[in-house]
Specification:
Oligomer: single chain
Helix content: 25-40%
Strand content: 15-25%
Mean pLDDT: 92
Shape: globular
Largest sheet: 6 strands, mixed
Radius of gyration: 20 Å
CATH superfamily of the largest domain: P-loop containing nucleotide triphosphate hydrolases
CATH class of the largest domain: Alpha Beta
Structural class: alpha/beta
Order of helices and strands: EEEHEEHEHHHHHEHEEEHH
Number of helices: 10
Strand order of the largest sheet: 6-7-8-3-9-10
CATH architecture of the largest domain: 3-Layer(aba) Sandwich
Length: 328
């Protein structure tokens, strides 16, 4: 969390599991705790399948069928989202907590103009007339970088590029000036120049409106100079948390070290990475080991690592890390 001391979201001991047709239980998020401060940008970093997107869906209470929050709480401004009725949640989703998907082409309606789709968010949450909604949408389109918002308003998703569709998704997400915006791999479908533009846009939204942002990514390259703090996630658990500059300059957990080493990251000048080069594979969530879940892939594994899961140690101020390198 940032230094303001104002906690916007507090996730405490959250566990989410999927139940398959045969009745087997697949844990996706396991006893996870995380805090997001007001106006803070937090990054969740990890490989595909580590539980990042499940966490995002849990924050919105939009888990797919078969997924259940088994324990824990998600406090938004002190209120537990897991105990809210669907009616109470509808008043928060889209207005106070919003979402930018990885691929807006799949979330935008192909038969409606993009302007009308942004206007629908306003109609659902704010008491504005038709003319007011249109004026507000044009203003939003300008804010997210469109030079001719009137033309974009009447365009259809298939007429726009990937970067333009992502800007529309961001316009939808910030339409009601939310307190928290969740962005799930917001740049993964874009080329490098467009990635930089979207990152700059999200940073601008935080500066201008004080919006807290949770960014989910497998790519450390987008975090430097943009994210305030990083939570590194592996096999359903957060293994390390820290200030972004510290994480990229001096990673503590062997998994984080491997990610940063592959990315050849230095603050301000990271290089894009591919996680497939980490030796071994992520553990099967249906049969997690008793000990450290990264142990089979770790170059520094010890005997104790296979015996039990490491607790959280704090070898440096505000740097919790789950690794027996730092204590027993």
């Amino acid at each position: 969390m940032d230094g303001t001391g104002k906690v916007l979201v507090a996730v405490r001991g959250l566990s989410v599991a999927y139940t398959l047709a045969n009745g087997s239980r697949i844990p996706a998020v396991d006893d996870l705790s995380l805090a997001i401060g007001s106006e803070e940008i937090v990054g969740i970093l990890g490989e595909s399948g580590c539980g990042k997107s499940t966490l995002a869906n849990a924050l919105l209470r939009l888990l797919p069928a078969g997924a259940v929050c088994e324990q824990g709480e998600i406090l938004f401004r002190g209120r537990n989202l897991l105990r809210m009725s669907e009616r109470e949640l509808r008043a928060i989703r889209g207005r106070e907590v919003t979402f930018v998907p990885q691929d807006p082409a799949l979330s935008l309606n192909p038969v409606l103009s993009v302007g009308s789709q942004v206007a629908e968010i306003l109609r659902a949450h704010l008491p504005l007339g038709r003319k007011q909604r249109r004026a507000r949408v044009l203003e939003l389109l300008g804010e997210v970088g469109f030079v001719r918002p009137e033309e974009i308003y009447d365009a259809y998703p298939h007429q726009l590029s990937g970067g333009q569709r992502q800007r529309i998704a961001i316009a939808q997400a910030v339409a009601c000036r939310p307190a928290l915006l969740i962005a799930d791999e917001p740049t993964s479908k874009l080329d490098a120049p467009l990635q930089e533009e979207i990152v700059a846009l999200l940073a601008q939204i935080r500066r201008k409106h004080g919006t807290a942002i949770l960014v989910i990514s497998h790519d450390p390259a987008m975090f430097a100079g943009f994210i305030d703090s990083i939570a590194v996630m592996y096999a359903g658990k957060i293994v390390e948390i820290g200030n972004t500059a510290q994480i990229l300059r001096q990673p503590l957990h062997p998994y984080t070290q491997a990610l940063v080493e592959m990315a050849k990251s230095a603050v301000g000048a990271p290089v894009r990475t591919h996680f497939a080069s980490i030796e071994g594979e992520s553990p099967n969530p249906a049969a997690f080991p008793v000990g450290c879940r990264f142990e089979p892939r770790c170059r520094e594994r010890m005997e104790i690592c296979v015996q039990r899961y490491p607790p959280s140690f704090v070898p440096m101020p505000a740097r919790p890390v789950s690794c027996f390198k730092y204590g027993e």
